[in-house]
Amino acid sequence: MHYDVIVIGAGLAGLTAACQLIDAKKKVLLVDQEPANSIGGQAFWSFGGLFLVDSPEQRRLGIKDNKELAWQDWRGSAGFDRLEDEDHWAYEWAKAYIDFAAGEKYNWLKSQGINFFPVVGWAERGGSLAGGHGNSVPRFHIVWGTGPALVEPFANKVLNASEKGDITYLPRHQVTELITEDGTITGIRGNVLENSIIRRGEESSRVVVDSFEYLADAVVVASGGIGANIELVKKNWPSRLGTPPNSMVAGVPAYVDGKMLEITERAGGRIVNRDRMWHYTEGLKNWEPIWNNHGIRILPGPSSMWFDALGNRFTAPNFPGFDTLSTLEAIQKTGYDYSWFILTEKIIEKEFALSGSEQNLDLTKKSIKDVLKRVLPGPPKAIQDFKDHGEDFVIADSLKDLVEGMNKLVGSDLLDFLHIKEQILARDREIENPFTKDAQITALHGARNYIGDKLIRAAKPHKILDPSAGPLIAVRLNILTRKTLGGLQTNLNGQVLNEEGNPIPGLFAAGEVSGFGGGGVHGYRSLEGTFLGGCLFTGLQVGKYLAVAHKYSSMT
C-alpha cells in the first residue's frame, strides 16, 4: 500500500491539505485516531473567528485597516526575540500569513462557500502603546455557521472523494511511529483501534484490535497540539507566567494529547518554542460537559470589573478582552489559579458571549431570527443556562451578600467586603463623566465609538452599584487550556526541519503541531482569529507544494 502522500490528522489543517491533493489527483491516505464523526477536530467546536485585514465587512463598518497596520500589530504582539534560531522560520511564516490575511484569504474562503456575520469583533485589544500587543482595529470575523460551517466544505470534499475512491480515509488509525529509511520518512506504522460509538468530542476507546503499516513519498503531520494533556502543559509552563496552575479546565477534547509531537521528534523533527502557549483566563466549568474537565471560555466585553483571588482589582492592560497572557501572568503571580469578574445584569446581557459552536446555536444554525433575539433584554439562553446551573456564578441583590457568596463558593474568607466596596465605589464615581482617569472606563468609552461594539458588545456605562442595573453577579474565572504556540519547525513549504536546520526528506507538518507555521508564527501572543486561519494557511501551503512536487523525498 504505497501512497503519494499520507496525512496524519483529520482536523482543519489536515483536511485543507488533503483537499489540495485531491484536486491534484494525488494518491492520498488520510488517517485519524478518532471516529469518523470527529472529522474536523477542534475546529468544529470553535466560535469560527477568523483574522482578516481590510475586508468588505470591516469597510462597511467604517474600519480602516491595511497590511502595514496588521503587520505592526503582529510584530508588537509576537515579540519575536529568537530570530537567529527558533523564531527564524516563524517570522517568515508570519509575514506570509499577513500577506494571506490581507490578500487571497477572503476570496478563497468565499469560493469555498464560507460567509461571515456582518459585525466584526474586536478581540485582544492590547491596552498598551501603538507598537505593543493587540489589534489596533476589529479583525475578528465570525463565520456564519461558526466552526461547523468552516469545517463543512473541506470535510464534505474529503468524504465525497473517499466515497468515489479518490482518497483513502481511515478513522480509528492511531499512528505510533514514522518509518525512516536512510534518513528519509517513508511511511507510518500504528494501531487500529476498536470501533467506538460516542458523541463527537467524547473520549474514545484506545483498545487495539489490529496494526497497520503504510508507505508514501511524503507524510504530513497535522495532529494538533497539547491542550488536553495537562501534565505536558505544566511541564512546558514558562516561568515568566508564574508557577503552573494547580487546577485548569480543558478547552479541548482528550485527543489533543501532543503524542505526534513526541513521535515526530523521535524521527528527527525539531520542536522549538516549547515554552510558548496560549491559555485563557476566563474559563468556566461546563455545567453540561462533553469531554472530561470540559471548560468554556467567556468572550467578555470591556465593562466587568476584574479582581484577583484576594479582591484586588487588576490594572492596565489586564482588563476583559485586552491582553490574555498579561492577565494570565498577573493571576499566576498571586499564588492562586482563579480570579473574579464582578458585574451587573445589564452588563452580562450585552457583553457576555461564550466560545464554542455548541454555545452559540443561533449563529451555528444560521438562524437570523434567533440572532436578532440577542438585542432583547436579558442574557442569551446559553449564558442564562450557566447562570442557572453553572458552579462558577454567584448572584445577589447586595454587594455584601455577593461577597459572602464568593467566599462560600471557594471555601475561604479571602475577600473583604469593605475592600471590594471601596474599589467599586471609586470606579463608580468615575463613571459620572465622559472623561476619567480610570483606564478601563476610558477604554469602555473608546469601545462604544465603534458601532459594532456599541450595538452588541459594550453596555452603556453605568454604576456597578446602581440598583436598577442589578442584580449583582460574580463569576469565578478558571484557567482554561487551549493552544500550543510552539511546535515542529518548518520552512515555508511546510517541510519539517531537523536539529541542524535542514529539511527531513519526506516529512511535512501543518497546523498547531507546527506552531501554525515555522514552529511559532504567533511568537508570544496571538491576535485571535489566527488559530483557525493558521490551520487553513499551513494546510493550504503544504497541500499546494505537494500537489506540484514530483519527488518529495529529494526536495530540500
From TrEMBL:
SUPFAM superfamilies tied to this protein:
FAD/NAD(P)-binding domain
Taxonomic superkingdom: Bacteria
UniProt keyword list: Flavoprotein, Oxidoreductase
Q: Which residues form the FAD-dependent oxidoreductase 2 FAD-binding domain?
A: 4-532
| Coiled-coil intervals, chain numbering | none
Q: What NCBIfam families does the database record attribute to this sequence?
A: PRK12834.1
How is this protein named in the record? FAD-binding dehydrogenase
